[in-house]
Structure formats: structure tokens, C-alpha cells
């Protein structure tokens, strides 16, 4: 279930929701590497990284299989969904928000439909 379904109903009336969205994909990653210590484990481990694209649903998946020195493995799946300004506006309006500001990034750049980022300040009504 998308994260916004958890956040939006719990925001108090008058609360502000700041949304940012990376709209352009970095490309599908298919690689593997070893790490002495790092994000996935505090000790030596291997990471098999794979990317899957589902353009019909504006969704993609980054999957990581982490294998430690003992041979134990764990799979992590990170799901992402692309929103355009019109699709996130619809979601916000359906959940009782009005959009107050829209930028092209989190530094306040002007928004254009080909921006990589959308930053939105929406207020719960």
C-alpha cells in the first residue's frame, strides 16, 4: 500500500504535507558487489541488485539480495511510484488537501512538467 495512504488521513486539519517525488528514473540497475561493511550489514557481505520496470503502472522495483559471510541471505524490495502533478493533485484533493505551492525542486525552482522533481506544499482543509 502506498505511503501516502498512511500519512494523509493522519494529518490534523490545518496541517501541511510536503511532497517530493523523483519523476525521472536513474535506469534499471543490475549489478553485484562486495562490501566490508556498509548500509546492509555491519560486516562483510555481497549484494545482488536488480531493477524491474512496470511502466503501465508508473511503478518500478529495486530489489536487493544481501548474502553475508555465513551464507545467510535476505531479500529487500523497494517499490516506487511515479506521480505527475495532475495525478498527485488528484490524490491530495480526494484526501481533503488544497495545494498551496508547487516547485520544480526542494530549493524553490520554478516547476516545469519536464522537471525531475515535484515539490508540493498542501494544506489539509
Automatic annotation (TrEMBL):
Protein name in UniProt: Methyltransferase
InterPro entries registered for this protein in UniProt: SAM-dependent_MTases_sf (IPR029063)
Species of origin: Sporomusa silvacetica DSM 10669
SUPFAM superfamilies listed in its UniProt record: S-adenosyl-L-methionine-dependent methyltransferases
